Every structure is written in C-alpha cells, then in structure tokens.
Fold this protein.
Amino acid sequence: MTTKLKQRSSDQSTEKAKEHAILDPQFYTTDYDALDRLDMSPVRKEWDQLMSEFERDSNIDHFDPGAEFERPLESIPEAAREEFLQFLISSLTSEFSGCILYSNIRKNVKNPDIARLMGYMARDESRHANFINRALKGFGMGVDLSRLSKEKKYKYFKPKYIYYATYLSEKIGYARYITIFRQLERNPENRFHPIYEYFEQWCNDEFRHGEAFALLMHANPKLLKGYNKLWIKFFVQAVYATMYVRDHKRLNLHAALGLNTTEYDYKVFQITSACAEQIFPLSLDIDHPAFRAGLERLRRISDAGDAVKKKGGLFGGTRRALYMIMGAATFARMYLIPSKRNELQAEVRMAPAW
C-alpha cells in the first residue's frame, strides 16, 4: 500500500470516528464541583484495595502487539471486512472518549479519591484506544486521535448520568469481550485476527472500571434511591437497545466469529444483568416476550430509517422523523414492562467469573 493511499485511508478512518449518529460514542464534560462532594469513606477499605489493584497495573505489558498486527486487509474474511473495521473504529472512539472525559475530570477536581481513580482509568482507556489503533494502522487505516479530540463536539452530562452510563458501559464491555473470547477459545479456527487473543485481559480492565463506579454509587446511596431508579432503568434499557440495534447491523462479523447475533446479545445481557445486581436496585426482565418483541421492532425501525436515508428523496426527512417517533413510542412501551427488584448487598465487589 502506497504512502498516499495509507494517508487517504487514515483520513477516512478519522472522519468515520468523527461522525455523529445516535449509536456513536460522544465526548463529554460534567460538573466537577459535584464530583468533589463525593464521599468514599463508607467504602474506604474496599476502595483502597481497588486503588491498589489499579496501581499494580497488571496489564502494563499486555497491550503491546508486534508484527502480528501488520497484515493486509484481505486477510480478513471478505463478508466481515467492513463490519470489522466499523467495530474497530467505534470501539476506539468509545475508549478514547472515556480517556478524554477521565483526563478532564482528573485535571479539574480537588477530591483526591476521584482524581486518583480518574488518572488510572484515563491511563487504561488511552492504552486501549492506542491498542485498537495499532490494529487499524496494521491495515494502513489508523485514526488521528489528536485531531479527533480537537474536532469532535463535546456535550455536558450530569455526574450521576456519567456514573450510571459508565458503570453499564464498562460491565457490558466486559460481557461482550469475554463472550467473544470464550467463543474463540472453543473455536480457534474462527479467530481471524490476533486482536481477539487479547480480549480476556482487556475485558478484565473493563470489569475493574465498573467495580470502581459500583463502589462510588454504594458509598453515595442517594444515587440509587427515589426517582433515580427511573433513570437507572432508562440507562439500562437504552444501553441494551442500542447494542441490539447496532449489533444486528454486523451480522457478517458475528457469523465470521461463529456467533448468532441475537443469541450473543442475550448472553451479554444476561452477564451484564448478573453483574449489575451488585449495585443497581432493579434489573430488566430481558426474557419478557414484550421486551424481546420491542427490541426486534426497534431493529426493524432502525433498518427502515437507514433505507430511507440511503434512498434520499423529497419526503425522506419526513419519513425518517416518523420512524424516530415510532422508535420512541416502542422504547416507551418497553419501559413500562415491570422490572425485577434487587437487594443491595453490604459488600459490592465482584470477581470476573465468566
């Protein structure tokens, strides 16, 4: 591949990472004074143990691939090629988004507990983002992370929303990676790229990040009471629905890994729900027929909206708006499905046992 072609491919990857859509990760700012008011003393023993784990940094030498990542794009199964690249770019953007958020929090807070945690998490997410970028660069398609951080728009997010969303994203990230890792342990012939060999230790980082936010919420229980339960349910449902819709646009990628997309998603939901019982006061009834039907309806609405967008035309915008209304109505009906109650445990720490 020539230098000019590599540069063009890299620019295209960066532009893809900058795109704004409902399924794409965003960059965020928040209320740093509210973070300064967090009190971790109720979980001091567990907190200090977890900070010691971060400090030991057991994965310091893990994300260091060699020439194994240097390979032609043609080495990837043709049917899965585009979806694999989309997976890499969206995963990189998500990791880098976390890195930027945590770095900004660390720089702007005075609370030593929060500053210490955010420093460790920014370190890990930066390492993950650069690791994924190594895979993209192996194809001559690396993302310019410095340009991405300058040109991607930032949004304000309330701290408690960050707690809920980050906890969920870290635990569901663990569930996704460990499910794929176990699948390829059983079926190594489907491991078409060496990045998958790194998934176990990678997802253990994600699990540890989730543990930190579980302790943060446990130490500040008002975050788990009253109307905040409604927000928790909203975020859990939004994360599950987003994953389901997005994953069903990557059927070829999952097929190349030997996975059925729907079965894979529900396995991830099961693991994530089991993890979230450690801290969230409720769980979604993911086996409820109306929940499953709702996810399928959201998938069909999303596919129809994509088709209209691709086709264009005079009335395309109107039809897309109609599909958005239909999606919101479906999401609202799913939200009314009764949830399951969880009892908060005295000690919330868990081990990555899947």
Q: What stands out?
A: DSSP finds 13 helices and four strands in the chain. Residues 28 and 219 are 24 Å apart (CA to CA). Confidence is low (pLDDT under 50) at residues 1-8, 16-24. Residues 81-108 form the longest helix (28 residues).
